[in-house]
Structures are given as C-alpha cells and as structure tokens.
Amino acid sequence: KEVMVDVDSKQQRAKPHWYERYIQPCVAELVGSALFIFIGCLSVVEDAGGTGRLQPALAHGLALGLTIAVLGNI
User: Fold this and answer.
1) Measured between alpha carbons, how far is 59 from 41 in angstroms, rounded to an integer?
2) Residue 25 CB-half CA count within 13 A
3) Which GO terms describe its cellular component (predicted)?
4) Tens digit of pLDDT for each residue in 18-73?
5) pLDDT value at position 28?
6) Is 11 a member of any domain?
7) Does residue 1 fall inside a structural domain?
8) Fewer Cβ neighbours under 10 Å: the N or C end of the chain?
C-alpha cells in the first residue's frame, strides 16, 4: 500500500495584525521605559541615609525584572 502525504497540509500562521506588529511593541517599550526610569529616579530621591548605593541598585534591578516579566512576551 502506498500512503499519499499532502505536503501542503501544514497550517500557516496568520499574519499579525498591524496593531500587534507596530503599535503594541512601541507602547510596551514606552511603558517599560517609563516604569524603569520612574522607579529608578524615585529610589534615588527617596534614598535613606544608611543604604548608600544599595537601594537604587536594587530598585533598578527589580524594576527591570518586573518590566521583563510583564512585557517580555510582547
């Protein structure tokens, strides 16, 4: 017996909508950058006397991690 396999039967992914292709990445970049800068600047302004450089460094790291976790799939 011969089995015929249709090579063209693979489903093709639909083209992404223009919003998903152009607008959504720009908005995600804007929100991520704003969050990173806002939290970073706030940590420097509200720096406690005894923490030195640790508080701003941790705040920047956590802001970056949060941004990547939330907006990374876009």
Assistant:
1) 9
2) 6
3) membrane
4) 888 889 999 999 999 998 899 888 888 876 677 777 888 888 899 999 889 988 88
5) 92
6) no
7) no
8) N
Query: Which residue in this structure is represented by tokens 């152009």?
Result: 22
Tokens matching residue 25:
């990445």
Written as six digits, the tokens of 41 are 């600047």
In terms of Cβ atoms closer than 10 Å to its own Cβ (0-12, 13-18, 19+), residue 36 is middle
φ/ψ (deg, to 5) at 62: -70, -35
Number of domains in the chain: 1
Which residues neighbour 67 within 8 Å (Cβ) at sequence distance 6 or greater? 32, 35, 36
Task: Identify which of 39, 19, 16 has the alpha carbon closest to the alpha carbon of residue 28.
Answer: 19
* Residue 16: inside a domain: no
Amino acid at 30: L
